[in-house]
Amino acid sequence: MGSQASTMWPGAMPPREKLLNHGAAALSDVELLAIFLRTGLPGLHVIQLAEQLLRQFGSLYHLMSADHQVFCSQKGLGNASYAQLQAISELAFRFFSSHLAQENAMLNPRITQHYLQSLLAHHEREVFLVLFLDNQHRVIRHQEMFAGTISSVVVHPREIVRAALKANAAAIILAHNHPSGKAEPSHADRVITEQVINACLLLEIRVLDHLVIGRGECVSFAERGWL
C-alpha cells in the first residue's frame, strides 16, 4: 500500500505509516478500512475500494453490521473478509467488557461509551439498558431493562431500583439508543433520568450518567452537566 498510497494523496502519509506514527485514532474510516482490506482490485486502488464500500453501505457501522449475504455480494469482499471483520468486532466488545469488569468505569468514559455503543447501536427499536456498578464503579453486569418502538420506550424507575438492589449495586449508568441515529436527548429522556435519580436517591444508589447512543455518536448527561 506504500508508494501507491502516497501518489493517491500527495504529501499525505500512507494509512499504515500514519497509524504507526500517530496512533489508530488519527485515521479516518476510509484509512482504517484500507488497512483491513490490504489490497484493492484490478484498476482500483485499496483507498478507492474503501471509499466505494463506505459509500455503498453508508457508513462503517452499516458495513460492519451488514447481513452476511449482503456483505459477501460486494466485489472485493467475501467469507474471509466477513469472518475477519466479525472477529474484530467481537474482540473489541470483549476488550471493553473485560476492561469495565476490572477498572473504574468513570476513569475512562470513552471505553464505557464504546462498550454501550457495541451493545445498543445495532437495535432497530429503542432499548433501555442499565450498567450495575460496585462501590469502586466496576461493572457487575448489564441488563436490557425495557424495549419499545422505533421512537420511544416506557421506563419504570422502580424496576431499575429493584434490579440494582438484586445486583447489590452501589451505582448505575443508564443508557438507551435512538434508532434514528441522532443521539441528541429529548425532553422525555431528561424527565425519566430525573425520575430514576429520585427513585435511587432514597436507597443511596448513585446514577453516574445517562448515555444516549446514536449511530457513531453518543451524548453523555454527565459531560453536559445535567446530573
From TrEMBL:
**Pfam families on file:** RadC (PF04002), UPF0758_N (PF20582)
InterPro entries membership: MPN, RadC_JAB, RuvA_2-like, UPF0758, UPF0758_CS, UPF0758_N, UPF0758_YicR
**Annotated signal peptide:** none
Q: What CDD domains does this protein's entry cite?
A: MPN_DUF2466
Give the protein family.
Belongs to the UPF0758 family. YicR subfamily.
Q: What is this protein called?
A: UPF0758 protein SYMBAF_00420
Q: Which organism is it from?
A: Serratia symbiotica
- Point out the gene that encodes the protein: radC
